[in-house]
Specification:
Layout lengths: L4 H37 L2 H20 L5 H24 L1
Length: about 90
């Protein structure tokens, strides 16, 4: 446990940030899961809307310092790949 006043304040601040980051990451994961669910159903219109929402949240997370920019870029890239593969597969069937 911290003994100095400044260390106590730093502990409070880091706990606040941790909880805020945790909530934001959870929201991003939820939006990605919704996107994947729409993709499984084959509803490409809703899936694309959801993909844009997830992409936006990932970019916001980068600007807020929650995600590293390369991690967000890789995640967005993978989601778009899944979307395009599923769309292509649906056309060929």
């Amino acid at each position: 446990m911290p003994h100095h006043k400044s260390a106590k304040k730093a502990l409070r601040q880091s706990e606040k940030r941790r909880m805020r980051n945790k909530a934001f990451k959870s929201r991003v994961k939820t939006e990605i899961k919704k996107f994947l669910a729409y993709l499984e159903e084959g509803d490409f219109e809703k899936a694309e809307q959801q993909l844009r929402i997830a992409q936006s949240l990932l970019h916001k997370g980068v600007s807020k310092g929650i995600f590293h920019w390369k991690k967000a870029a890789n995640k967005i890239s993978k989601l778009f790949q899944k979307f395009h593969r599923a769309k292509l597969q649906a056309k060929t069937q």
